[in-house]
Amino acid sequence: MAYPGLEIDVEEQLQYYISISERVNSMTVDTIQYTNDAYPNNIPVCGWLDIPQMQYSCLINGCTAINLTKLDVLTGLDEFQLCDISNCKKFEDLPDNAQKYVLRVQELLGVPIRWIEVGHNRSDQIDRGEGWDLK
Question: Can you tell me the distance from the alpha carbon of 118 to that of 116, in angstroms, rounded to the nearest whole number?
Answer without folding.
Answer: 6
